Amino acid sequence: MSHDAGAGAVPLGFHEQYSLHVNGEPRDVLDAWIGESLLYVLRERLGLMGSKGACEQGECGSCSVLVDGELVCSCLVMAASAIDQPIVTIEGVAPVGSPSDVQSAFVEAGAVQCGFCTPGLIMATNALLERSATPSELEIREELSGNVCRCTGYGRIIEAVQRVAISRQSAAVDRGSAR
Ligand code: FES
Ligand code: FES
Description:
Blueprint: E1 10-12, E2 15-22, E3 25-32, H1 38-45, E4 64-67, E5 70-73, E6 86-88, H2 101-108, H3 118-131, H4 137-143, H5 155-178
Parallel strand pairs: 2-6
Antiparallel strand pairs: 1-2, 2-3, 4-5, 4-6
Helix pairs in contact: 2-5
This protein binds FE2/S2 (inorganic) cluster (2 copies).
């Protein structure tokens, strides 16, 4: 890798070796091509199959992950550009078998049908609720407009987001009154 590609890179001829920080752990990427997308590296090199590839053009949001706290389409980001930045994928949202409140709300609201869009929508919902604890319906629609769902018609997805916002709000009120 050339010097400007990142301090963690080791030159290996046409193949590259570098380390990414994924879901709180260092993950070595070996024998890679420098132009590989983050989506490709996550799925094909690191075995993290939760992020989905559909359009691979930044249009559907199914590949959404967080890089340094920012929601990005991983199909549009070069993996090597994310060296030294924390990456969170759907696998890092909650331990297996203990879904997050957002994941549970999607299931309870019937917002999951084929499930292909769901990982991206969960990541986008997490980013939205991080930024705005009580989003309006318009805000939810705008924030999730980059995530295409071909099955649900969005009503149940919006309901799921609203459920989480309401439940977090009541938990905060309960905590306040218990003090
Ligand atoms: S696969 Fe990345 S936006 Fe569609
Ligand atoms: S549940 Fe099938 S694409 Fe969204």
